[in-house]
Structures are given as structure tokens and as C-alpha cells.
Amino acid sequence: MKKIIYFIATVVLLTSMVACNDEDLNPTLTEDKDLETNISTYEDVVALLNGAYNRISSGSYYGRDYIIINEVRTDNTYSNANSNRFVEEGRMNILPTASNGAWSQIYRVIAVANALIQAEGVSGDAALINHAKGQAYAMRALGHFDLVKLYGQQHVSGGDNTLGVPYVTTYRNPDNYFQSRNTVAEVKTLALQDLDTALSLMSASLNDASKQTITTHAVNAIKAKIALYFGDLPTARDAALKVINSNAFTIASASGFASTFSTDSASNSIFEIAASGTDNLGINGLANIYRGASYGDIAVLQDLKDTYDSNDIRGGSQFISTVGGFIRNVGKYPTMGTFDDNISVIRYEEVVLIYAESIIAENPTLALTHLNSIPQNRNAVTYPVATQTNVLVERRKEFAFEGMRFHDLARTGKDIPLVDAINQTHGGPAYGSFNFAYPIPNEEAGVNANVVQNFGY
């Protein structure tokens, strides 16, 4: 199949081009039929939605790569090249000729979301159908947000730092086959609009208790996350507060925190990607890349371990330990063999810290209360004052190995700290360096002249 723009305009939902278990998209969706007219029942909608969630779980997206590339470029971890994986990512030396895994996979998710959004005349319960379509709108927002964090020029000097990514809102529309890049500001606006649409369609009474699909709470959590990234503190504050006031989640306790990473639907989980003993990424997943004997490419930098207080459980042997001569993440994604740990996309502790960061200026006392609620539940030393610096320190401690560190550094205009000149092979790029953004893959830029390549590539 010809590779053209990010698989949105030309992709057809065939089992030959989708990731594991995307047979959920069949049998009603085939190459020689009009997709929109074949989504005719609510059962078709559910099958399509399941296929989209399966694509999110791909190894190119939240199943592994999107998390790892945002850790290995920071002061948290490095690639030891045990199986020669994530070496160039660790050097921040990705070339346009490299595999376009994240780009294509995320746009595949968006493709399915758009197909579902465009479906008309579907028979079945209207509330259920709308709830499913709301999830599709939220997926579309999350996908574009994740793309602009990786490929947008907002943190790069020397080029056009307004360049975002194409925000695709149609499926198989010939008029949009060669779409240009939207600005970063447009991506933010469109994503927040999609999330508001999602909330208008969804009903809290229909939320999935398993937390393995996007709920109304997850929509608000994603909204808070996007708004914080772009510095829209009032929107971040209001969305985070809705999640907090729902009373649907709790901060994991010190004694129970470790178990949340091997427990499905834990009390602090807002949205997680499902895995099971029969449906998982196996050796190509997160557990094996962090500590597998034959993989195990991602090791922990001593500086991160030293960041934790002596009694902080997150720095103790349940979470960080020396294995095979390397400091390892042993607490998150812990289950080897069956590889069946669900993968958190967003959990309650993140929402609490988003809220704390968003209200520092207006209510520092309340911000401090929320900030300290995390270390208080980790046997860690609390903070004397709420500042963005302290929130970032706590975010580093709490979300190490979960793929947030690089974007926290970037969104706050910081250089990549060079804490280990030998193992950190990127050399500690200054904020604004061209490699703060990934290159647009040649497989895309080479066939779509409207997609401008990023500065420096």
C-alpha cells in the first residue's frame, strides 16, 4: 500500500495493516466498501472503538516507544545498548530516514476515531452511541496532543516555532489528502474543542468502571494535562478540579503504591491500557525493555535514584534496584513472563499535581496542600512552599519511567540536565536546540509537499 499522509486519508481498515488483534475492525469494514455506510449498528461502533484502543496499546505508542523516548532523552534513564534499542533516541539523533513508528501509529488511532465520528445513521441506543463517539473525540485530541509534543516546533529556536502537526478531522476525504501542518496554537485549540465536544456527548452514568476506556473523568484529566502543557492555567485548574471533586479516585498509599502497577483498575487509575496474559506485547513491551535479560536497554541514572529521600518508597528496592550490573526500574510495569500489567495513561496523582501547579499564584497555601499530598503518601519529605520548581521535582519523582520527564523539561523552557557525561550520550542539549523536536519522517514529507520538514533536519 502506498504510504501517503500519516495514513489518515488513504488508510483502509484492513487486518494486514493494523497492529495486534485489530481483527476487531472486521468483518463489516473492508477495503472495497464505503467505511461510513458500513458502521450501521452500535455493535459496529463498539468493534471500531475496540480497534482504536488496541492501536493505542501498540508498541509504537503507549505500549512502549512513546513512553521510553520521553525518558531516555532526559536525566532519568539512558540506553545501555544491550540489544541496540533506543540508542539513537538516547543520543537525540533521530534522522528523517528512521522508522516513522510513532507518527504513523498515532495517526492510525486518529483515523479510526475520525471514521467513528463521521458515522451516521447508526442504529441502537443513542446515548450509548454518543458516549462512544465522545471517546473518539477524546482519542483524536489526545493523539494530536501527543504528536505535537513530539514533532511540534514550539521548543525549537532558529526555525518556525509556530509549526505544529496536521490536525486531521476527516477520514478518507480526497480534499484533505495533502493537509498542511497546523500551528501549535491551532492544535491546542482544536484539541480542547474536541474534548469539550466529547464531554457534551458522554454521560458519567455510562463510564466504564474498568478504566480501560476513556470516561468523562479521563476527558477532564486529559484536558487538564493539555492545558497545563500549553500554560493555560485557568483551564488546567478547572478541569483538574472536576476530577478531584468527582471523589472517584484516591492517591495510592505508601503501602499500596507498588501494587497499583500490577493491579488492574486501581483506585488511582483514571485511564489505562488493557493487557492480559493472552493479549500483550510480550518481550516487546515495557517490562522487558526496562529489565529483560535479552533486552533491558533502558537503565536508570544514579542522579534519579539520588533524588529520593532515604525513606521515600519510590527510591527504595521495590522500585529501583541494581540488577545485572545496572540500576533498574523494577517497580513499574513489573510483571515479566506474562507481561500482563495494564499501562497507565493518566492517573490521579498527576491530576493532583496539575491542580497544584495551576493554582500556585492564586492560592499558594492550597497549592502546597495538594503538592504535599503526594510525598505524604510516599513516606517522603514534604515541601515548605509550593513553587513550580518543587512541583517539577515531585513530578520527576512520582512519574519516573512513565514518559513525562522530557515534556516537563520542554514545557518549562529547561535544558536537558547533563548529570552523567558518559551514559547520557545526547550531551545535555540546551533548550531551543533543533533536536527538541523529532524530524517529520521522510515517508511523510517525501510524498506530501505541504508538510514542511522541521528545522535542523
TrEMBL record:
<feature type="signal peptide">
    <location>
        <begin position="1"/>
        <end position="21"/>
    </location>
</feature>
<dbReference type="InterPro" id="IPR011990">
    <property type="entry name" value="TPR-like_helical_dom_sf"/>
</dbReference>
<keyword id="KW-0998">Cell outer membrane</keyword>
<keyword id="KW-0732">Signal</keyword>
<keyword id="KW-0472">Membrane</keyword>
<feature type="domain" description="RagB/SusD">
    <location>
        <begin position="327"/>
        <end position="457"/>
    </location>
</feature>
<dbReference type="GO" id="GO:0009279">
    <property type="term" value="C:cell outer membrane"/>
</dbReference>
<dbReference type="Pfam" id="PF07980">
    <property type="entry name" value="SusD_RagB"/>
</dbReference>
<comment type="similarity">
    <text>Belongs to the SusD family.</text>
</comment>
<dbReference type="Pfam" id="PF14322">
    <property type="entry name" value="SusD-like_3"/>
</dbReference>
<protein>
    <recommendedName>
        <fullName>RagB/SusD family nutrient uptake outer membrane protein</fullName>
    </recommendedName>
</protein>
<dbReference type="InterPro" id="IPR012944">
    <property type="entry name" value="SusD_RagB_dom"/>
</dbReference>
<dbReference type="InterPro" id="IPR033985">
    <property type="entry name" value="SusD-like_N"/>
</dbReference>
<feature type="domain" description="SusD-like N-terminal">
    <location>
        <begin position="30"/>
        <end position="228"/>
    </location>
</feature>
